[in-house]
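Quick one: structure tokens for this chain, please?
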Amino acid sequence: MERSRHRTVVSWSSGKDAAFTLWELTKDPQYEVAGLLTTVTTTFGRVSMHGVREELLEAQAAAAGLPLYRVEIPFPCPNSVYETAMAGAIDRLRKDGVTHIAFGDLFLQDIRAYRETRMAPTGIRPVFPLWERPTPALAREMIGAGIEAYLVCVDPRALDRRFAGRRFDLSLLDELPPGVDPCGERGEFHTFVAGGPMFSRPIPVVPGEVVDRDGFVFADLLPG
């Protein structure tokens, strides 16, 4: 008798770690990927923290052939409002038969512990397909797999603002200053994925304005 597969959604930031998590799951026969779970700041119509336009998020979901589960929050967003919105999304996932959520976390133990604590009462199990994979090698593996990504948010306390908008490629990795994680796992930078093996087609983008907001440098991407 064939063993049933785990119906799983990917916690989707629009960036490379989430995209590579999706790619890893599609190769693992124990998982059935059922959708992408994304927090969207409705005040701006953008993916939270990454600042990516919703239309590009929707293009990613279409290219992945997966439905989007949106967690809609305002700006500013008190933690209580966020948790209420997330609880509503979890209820919907349970009704749709989802049993697992996959996160692209790499090595920050406090983040993993927070997710495990929050998910424990829900009955939906968190999984971490990329956990503790060495990030210097992982960053190069992502690039080698064909991921096309761009830095859309940079923390200027860790990385010069000139990196905002840059493509995530081998040249960029070679230019990262000492102490910056090659995958940006400590929040040094966030990315948007415009192409890769997890998509049926690339997502054309063109660079837009670079702005400073809330202590970060954002590089806007426009649909190509």
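The first strand starts at residue 6 and ends at 11.
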